[in-house]
Amino acid sequence: MILYTIFVLSGLAVATMLGRLYFDKGGKSQWIATLVQLAGFPILIIYYCFSPLKNSIATSTTTRPPSTIILVSVYVFIGLLVAANCFLYSTGLRYLPVSTYSLICASQLAFNAFFSYFLNSQKFTPFIVNSLILLTISSILLVSHDDSSIPSGVSREKYVIGFICTIGASAGNGFVLSLSQLCFRKVIKKDTLSAVMDMIIYESLVATTATLVGLFASGEWKGIKGEMEEFELGKVSYIMNLVWISIFSQGFAIGVIGLTFEVSSLFSNAVSVLGLPVVPILAVIFFGDKMDCIKAAAMVLALWGFLSYAYQHYLDNHESEIEV
């Protein structure tokens, strides 16, 4: 679980910062920014072939495997949702300051708790309710905030679009994680790491295919060569930036699905929220984002919301150990 947590925290921070760098230095294609979040999945096949990884946490099971049609339906449906979420995230990252974007993303924990209540029978304890309230207030502070660090060339209308898309992506991500947990429990019914890798690879394949269709249908693929030549840091940096986004995005995906598999979708999201305050600090250092009182208050509320949930998770674990 520690390894999964490291993947989530490092993948989230680095991929977000490099994504903002892509737009800041001349990148213009939202479809390219979406594609690189998904297209790195083939590198997982290398690790998937190693038997120690496949069997390290495997446990025998006698449950009847689901039909191929059901599995394909699950992978296609969730893969399409993942593609839509990544496109919305790319839109938000293009139009919002990194610090604002990352703080809004903390709202995904609230959405995940909401969907988990219906899909996974998640109990709403006082600490979880407190966490949801704090995260909601944090998002309200940001939407009502007149941000002075809006990226150059971004109008107030596009800023609002970015905010709405990021909220939508957070809601979609919360739903995907809750649905993934439900599928692990009700459909896949396998207690192995290979099941986690299957989920990531097949969903990413579907999501990548859908994004490629969008890229060619929109005509943005025609501008890739010009975008590469005009990139302020040069062609090599353009390519390496996209490559590293792909690698760290896949690391993040492994961590998220792994934590969903080992613990729960809500815990996986809580770890993601834990890493979000790191991004605004890095944004202040590398991109010159302004950390004013409103953003600082929103960050404190987001951290408080995470700690409230984490304490509830600690109580649940402690109670389980006593029962055992």
Overview of the molecule:
The chain has 15 helices and no strands. The protein has 324 residues and is mostly helical. About 3% of the residues have low confidence.
Give the helix/strand layout.
Elements: H1 2-24, H2 30-38, H3 42-48, H4 51-55, H5 68-95, H6 98-105, H7 108-119, H8 126-143, H9 156-188, H10 193-218, H11 224-230, H12 235-262, H13 265-275, H14 278-286, H15 293-323
Helix pairs in contact: 1-12, 1-13, 1-14, 2-5, 2-10, 2-12, 5-9, 5-10, 6-14, 7-9, 7-13, 8-15, 9-12, 9-13, 10-12, 12-13, 13-15
Strand % is under 5%
Mean pLDDT: 82
Number of helices: 15
Number of strands: 0
What would you call the shape?
globular
Low-confidence stretches: 53-61
**Main beta-sheet strand count, sense and barrel state:** none
Return the string of H and E elements: HHHHHHHHHHHHHHH
Through-space gap between termini: 21 Å
Structure at a glance:
By secondary structure, this protein is mainly alpha-helical. The protein has helices spanning 2-24, 30-38, 42-48, 51-55, 68-95, 98-105, 108-119, 126-143, 156-188, 193-218, 224-230, 235-262, 265-275, 278-286, 293-323.
Can you give keywords for this protein?
0% strand; 324 residues; mainly alpha; single chain; 15 helices
